[in-house]
Specification:
Oligomer: heterodimer
Helix content of chain A: 10-25%
Number of strands of chain A: 11
Strand order of the largest sheet of chain A: 1-2-10-9-6-11
Number of helices of chain B: 3
Shape of chain B: globular
Largest sheet of chain B: 5 strands, antiparallel
Radius of gyration of chain B: 20 Å
Number of strands of chain B: 5
Number of helices of chain A: 4
Order of helices and strands of chain A: EEEHEHEEEHEEEEH
Helix content of chain B: 10-25%
Strand content of chain B: 25-35%
Radius of gyration of chain A: 23 Å
Order of helices and strands of chain B: HEEEEEHH
Largest sheet of chain A: 6 strands, antiparallel, barrel
Chain lengths: ~260, ~140
């Protein structure tokens, strides 16, 4: 049982107070017209997956080859297209629209995004090196990485030696984040903690691979048109209740 | 209004509906009623002291209260919109010239005092002007 994920936009961060008075730092993510564009099947493609499109875009800004993709799915042109591997029973229909009800409160998710680029950075910033001394004869190279290897024996620098280079702007997965709150109408998901990427960046949210997906999570997917009853009352007071239930599921992992 | 503002405003409105937040600033002596949960029971404990700073804005705003407890200075920082606060009461307005009174940390006793601000609101001055001033003064002296 492997459900597909969703594509969302990172709006920014805020905080939420639960009823215990504890404050929870949250990242706000928004689903924008997430729609199934095509489906990969075992017979035809040799593997099963669901291709999703995210956020409607103007047709004039879409390249001609991509227009064909959207025309085939009979959908609006999308900003981002991504594929999620799913198990055979979790395949969706083309045209299905995903909603935030795909996830349930207290669930653990993994979020995939492209981290903020820091450009070409030195060893101190990139690998937390200590740099060199401020005095005692060190000149010009106060922030350098120092020695990069041994003497004649290897006679070379080891592969993978940590040095200066491009830092950030890579795909990063943050695992095991809590779903704190869902706003069905606005399509918002509030996730505890931070998420890779900049504001307005596009991220993928999927069920955490290191946790069992809760049994009451909609299967094969939480769709926009059918109203699931799982999260009917998504008020702040629900956070505590759901945290309790989730901690029961996970064997008291969550502090409450 | 963007999404984050809206989420924050909803939370602020919810707290304001439960308890009003008085107008106070650094230099004021205030009493903060804090909800404390012991087992299943909830009780309220007051923390009374001098507000020495307010910082942040919107939902993230917080204030620092300082008091001397058994000869030891104690400071607590409360988020203004924390659900753990049952109420805030202003006991005394202080006359200060700074927004942050961190200098009080180095002071003890007499030099750590803050002069009370005698507030004369506009309404009071108006009534005083309306009435004959001499009569009022006379009454005061007799009493």
């Amino acid at each position: 049982m492997m459900r597909c994920g969703v594509i969302a936009r990172k709006i920014g961060m805020s905080r939420i107070f639960n009823n215990n008075g504890e404050h929870i730092p949250v990242t706000i993510l928004r689903l924008e017209d997430v729609e199934v564009l095509s489906v990969k099947s075992l017979d035809k493609d040799g593997y099963t997956a669901v291709q999703l499109g995210f956020s409607n875009k103007k047709l004039k800004n879409i390249s001609k080859p991509l227009r064909g993709v959207f025309a085939k799915a009979n959908s609006q042109p999308k900003e981002k297209v991504a594929e999620f591997r799913v198990s055979e029973d979790a395949i969706l229909k083309i045209g299905d629209k995903l909603s935030v009800n795909h996830f349930i409160l207290g669930q653990k998710v993994d979020v995939v995004g492209v981290s903020q680029g820091k450009g070409f950075s030195g060893a101190m910033k990139r690998h937390n090196f200590g740099g060199m001394q401020a005095s005692h004869g060190v000149s010009i190279s106060h922030r350098s990485h120092g020695s990069t290897g041994n003497s004649q024996d290897p006679g070379r620098t080891w592969k993978g030696k940590k040095m200066a280079g491009q830092y950030g702007n890579v795909r990063i997965t943050t695992q095991n984040l809590n779903v704190v709150k869902l706003f069905e109408e606005e399509g918002l998901i509030l996730i505890e903690g931070s998420v890779p990427g900049s504001k307005n960046g596009v991220v993928f949210i999927r069920d955490a691979i290191k946790y069992k997906t809760p049994d009451n999570a909609p299967f094969p997917a939480g769709l926009a048109n059918e109203n699931k009853t799982n999260n009917e009352d998504i008020s702040l007071s629900n956070i505590d209740n759901n945290k309790e239930t989730s901690s029961e599921l996970e064997g008291g992992e969550v502090e409450n | 209004m963007n999404v984050i503002d809206k989420i924050q405003k909803d939370q602020m409105d919810k707290i304001v509906a439960e308890r009003s937040i008085p107008d106070f600033s650094a230099g004021d002596t205030i009493k903060v009623d804090v909800k404390i949960v012991e087992g299943d029971k909830e009780r309220i404990q007051a923390f009374e002291g001098l507000c020495i700073a307010r910082s942040g804005g919107g939902l993230n705003e917080s204030f620092t209260v300082r008091k001397i407890s058994y000869g030891e200075g104690v400071e607590r920082i409360f988020p203004i919109f924390s659900p753990k606060i049952a109420g805030i009461t202003v006991l005394k307005k202080g006359k200060v010239r700074r927004a942050k009174l961190y200098y009080l940390r180095d002071r003890r006793g007499k030099s750590a005092r803050i002069v009370e601000k005698i507030q004369v609101s506009k309404k009071d001055t108006k009534t005083q002007v309306d009435q004959p001033v001499s009569k009022e003064v006379a009454e005061d002296t007799t009493s």
